[in-house]
Amino acid sequence: MINTNIKATNMELTGAITDYVNKRLVGIEKFVKDEDKVLVYIEVGKTTNHHRQGDIFRAEFNVDISGNKFYTFSEKEDLYYAIDDAKEEIIRQITNNKDRKQTLFKRGAISVKKMLRGMSRRDPSTSK
Fold first, then answer.
1. Is 9 a domain residue?
2. Angle 6-10-13 (CA atoms, 0-180°, nearest 5)?
3. Is the model more confident about 106 or about 15?
4. Does residue 122 form part of some domain?
């Protein structure tokens, strides 16, 4: 279950934007277990203070999955492109974290297996 909080800065948060963001969050659900507690804070807005002409839109994603925090932002000339870009980056960060945990678990299991076979004198409780 994903708890979302969407905020708009320097623009009005319309139903179309909210629906678009919620549709994009369905893609994140695939990478999350059912028992994980997921909090998603999304901020969309216009940043026009430091740009001379044209609107630049910004989308920020702050995702907390059972204590693991992920953050990304994207600035594009179209709000929907910014949301899509930020969503892809969040998914990349989540999958990299998942792959890293699996790799570390496998390395530890291989080390313990070698130790039990007597092939290694390494103490698994220390780094040596």
1. yes
2. 40
3. 15
4. no
Q: Is residue 124 part of a domain?
A: no
For the segment 44-67, the average pLDDT, to the nearest whole number, is 80
Bridge partners of 63, per DSSP, are: 40, 70
Q: How does pLDDT run across 83-118, given as a tens digit for each residue?
A: 999 999 998 998 888 877 778 778 788 777 777 777
Q: How far is CA 98 from CA 45, 68, 93, 104, in A?
A: 30, 11, 9, 10
Structural domain range at position 28 = 2-93
Asked if residue 56 lies in contact with residue 77, where contact means CB atoms within 8 angstroms, the answer is yes
* Count of domains forming the chain: 1
Question: The domain that contains 75 carries what CATH number?
Answer: 3.30.160.100
Residue carrying structure tokens 């139903």: 15
Instruction: Count how many Cα atoms sit within 13 Å of the Cα of residue 24 in the half-sphere of its side chain.
Output: 24
Q: What is the pTM of this model?
A: 0.74
Residue 83 lies in a domain: yes
Q: Could you give the C-alpha distances from 4 to 21, 29, 119, in angstroms and in order? A: 10, 12, 50
